[in-house]
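Exercise: predict the fold of this chain.
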Amino acid sequence: MDKPYCPPTTGSIEREPANGEMKSEAPGSGATVTGLRTFAAADVPAVADLIWRVLHNQSGPAPASMREYLGDLFLHNPWPEDGIVSRVYRDAQGKIVGFFGAVPRRMSFQGKTIRLAFGSNFVMDPESRTTMAAIQLVRTFMKGPQDISITDSANEGSRQLLRSLGFTVVPIYSLQWARPLRPSQYAATMLSRFKKSRALAVAGAFARPFCALADRAAARLRLSPYHQCPPETNDEELSPEGLLECLHTIPGKHGLLPEYSLQTLTWVLDFVARRKVFAALRKGAVRNVGGKIVGWYIYSGRPGMLGDVLQIGAEGPSTQQVLDHLFYDAWKRGLIGLHGRFEPQFMQELTMNSCFFMRSGSWTLAHSKNYDLLAALQSGTAFFSRLDREWCLRPGSPSVN
């Protein structure tokens, strides 16, 4: 959930209709209907332009890829649920000044299917005088038929607004882990990202060629925490059918699990690939010495860049084997480091493998009337990877990465 416009607290406040219903004008009055309504295909161009201008600070009309993204995600996703719909807000002139995207997903909780709704691409036109629209959009979303509402892309402004309306922060799933693969180049890259310190940025860029030499030594020295050698077990390319089987068997001890069919899993993987936010996905299945699949990993990244881990799965005793394959495969492909969302079940192994943890970027928040369901999420006992969240469904124009 990106950058909402938080309404001012002073000035005249337009009276809003109850329960998210639209205001209706007298027939023949010539006035335009004002308020909320369900997002429809005809709204795509206007919403795309609004998101392009407000969330991505771009001028002019939104690119075709943004319009395609909105239609695919909010109108043609494979999880249709009555009542879990995206909504727009129109002002008195009929102009769309607000949008709240809703993406249904399904999970299983204690063996029963539940409905989850992600709030996504929340945006308000800062020039709009409709001061209560942002609150009305969120409240209407919260009143949907879903068992739990989640966002994992809230900035600080969104976090404050959502908390005031009843959402709670989920600290565990707001953390990230990081694992340098080429530690010197990783450090130089981090330094170059300090835009407020030009000296540090220049120093980081200047040092990169020399860092490569240090990283070769770190990879060869056996005592180095960044030593690289081929794992003793084997991995192979993981098909959607193989991934679905893994998801149905390996993480079975978790109380809260994603629920996929082959159709929905294939749709997610294809959607991620078509958006081009990431490099090509690398999906690996890890087999033990007996040939049994004991875990898998999914990540993306380009040589010389940081990679993003979308999902890790492993049988408990085999976690180290899966991480060995993940880190070696990414190093062999030229990545300088990997970042992933915090997975509590892998904390010990990640710590032992020179990973560190941080909280940067977006927040994860949730709302549910089911205390046990919310507690399961807050305690970190869910199998809840980036692939299963809103995070992997963001748009992918080169101008908005």
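Check your answer against the key: The chain has eleven helices and 15 strands.
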